[in-house]
User: What shape does this take?
Amino acid sequence: MGQPLILHIPMTESTKAMSNCLPPLPLGPSPKRASRQSEVVWESARITVGGNAPVRVQSMTNTDTEDAIATAIQVKELARAGSEMVRITVNTPAAAAAVPYIREQLDKMGVHVPLIGDFHYNGHTLLKEHPECARTLSKYRINPGNVGKGAKRDPQFAQMIEAACEYRKPIRIGVNWGSRFCAPCLRYRGLMRYFDRVLAHSGCSLSSVWPL
Assistant: This one.
């Protein structure tokens, strides 16, 4: 048996800053966080998420969503490989316009895997200006650090919440290091307070939209 491999990672200014803002890792098994169960739905596919639902498999395409045929083909391949949900980038008006066509192509092929829309910066505009895209997607993924800055952030986030309320779509709040400019989102309680504030802008209730 050889000696264990020990990696020594040099501490740069960037890694020091990251380590200073992150909480220490807990020791031992982590308690299960209570979560609300929801469904991600398209046609016959009903994928339960959260609560006591099993671990789900979700993949993401690396195609240009504006290329509807290439995206539909890759979604089909991912679904046949076992992906239960597939996330696609919705980052331009042309991409948003392509989403219903992607869904149409998948349905023609008998592939009813739910599509998740991944939005950055302009999601509030795309969901408003492309209602068929908003209807066709089975779930929205939002990074609260990428919905705007300053005074624009809350109302733009609220517009996305309004779309989710109108079309009855679950939302995944995808918090990661890209959310570092949205400091409250780096902690779960802070995220809930932030989410409450955004809901006040939108007029929705937390019972209408639940972050996944």
Remarks:
- Residues 110 and 189 are 41 Å apart (CA to CA).
- The chain is about 40% helix and 15% strand.
